[in-house]
Write a structure and sequence with these properties.
The protein is an alpha/beta fold. 44% of the residues lie in helices and 14% in strands. It has a single domain, classed as Alpha-Beta Barrel (TIM Barrel). The protein is built from twelve helices and eight strands. The chain has an eight-stranded parallel barrel, surrounded by five helices. The structure holds 2-phosphoglycolic acid (PGA). 2-phosphoglycolic acid binds next to strand 8.
């Protein structure tokens, strides 16, 4: 059970247009009771075209979720056709931005340098980055998991001051577990999170690493959330498929809150 206030984030990926988003978030708002979110932070990460709609609804109806984005540019403005500025996201009240999701890395050529630059752009606008890292099935079977995680963490975080490191979120998302229905075991998730925390200590010291929230992501469901969250170094969950419908996402939020005693 973590000593850090957990964060449950719903990454909708390229699902739900703005009307569907409206229904989903309204449904979530009807289900979530004050006690469900008393011990857990929640963010939803809809597609860009939904953000304004979701933000307006969340504000008007006081729905206890933070607004998140799935990606942004590392630049604030300029000739970047198709990109979205972190400044625009901040202006919308976006609290969290996912940075370097494995789908951005593998499908859109986002390399470690771009992840590092984007992470800094998010920080520049006082939003919280959720930095995603994780190994492929092949890397795992070759025993390279720690080497891959170390490379990704060091590339993204080196040079950041301890107070910044302590405030950010890292998501451990083994690529073989994303969208496959095959989540990591709680023990494997814990081991990876412990290792990642030791890397944060290397960069910024124990004080920072004790505060950094490390999520697990990859085929999280209402059924496995409790086991995952029972581990002391798993500080939250990054949820794809199971965040698309309010009932399933609510189950995960409740399971997570039950695993944290503030
Ligand atoms: P999944 O996706 O929960 O559908 O496996 C997680 C993610 O990619 O963030």
């Amino acid at each position: 059970m973590t000593i850090r206030r957990p964060l449950v984030s719903g990454n909708w990926k390229m699902h739900h247009d703005h009307i569907e988003a409206l229904h989903t978030v309204r449904d979530l708002g009807l289900r979530l009771k004050a006690e469900d979110v008393a011990r857990v932070d929640v963010s939803v990460h809809p597609p860009f075209t939904d953000l304004r709609t979701v933000q307006t609804l969340v504000e008007q109806e006081h729905i206890p979720v933070a607004i998140g984005a799935q990606h942004c540019s590392d630049e604030d403005a300029g000739p970047r056709t198709g990109e979205v500025s972190p400044r625009f996201l901040a202006r919308l009240g976006t609290a969290y931005v996912i940075v370097g999701h494995s789908e951005r890395r593998t499908l859109f050529g986002m390399d470690d340098a771009k992840v590092a630059a984007t992470l800094r752009a998010v920080l520049r606008h006082e939003m919280t980055p959720i930095v995603c890292i994780g190994e492929t099935e092949e890397q795992r079977s070759r025993g390279l998991t720690e080497a891959v995680l170390e490379e990704q963490v060091m590339a993204a975080l080196s040079g950041l001051p301890p107070e910044v490191l302590g405030a950010l979120v890292i998501a451990y998302e083994p690529i073989w577990a994303i969208g496959t229905g095959q989540a990591a075991t709680a023990v494997d998730a814990e081991d990876a999170c412990v290792f990642i925390r030791s890397l944060v200590t290397k960069v910024g010291g124990d004080g920072a690493a004790e505060r950094t929230r490390i999520q697990y992501g990859g085929s999280v469901t209402g059924e496995n959330a409790t086991d995952l969250m029972a581990e002391p170094n798993v500080d939250g969950l990054l949820v794809g498929g199971a965040s698309l419908e309010a009932p399933a996402f609510t189950d995960i939020i409740r399971a997570t809150g039950a695993c944290y005693r503030s």
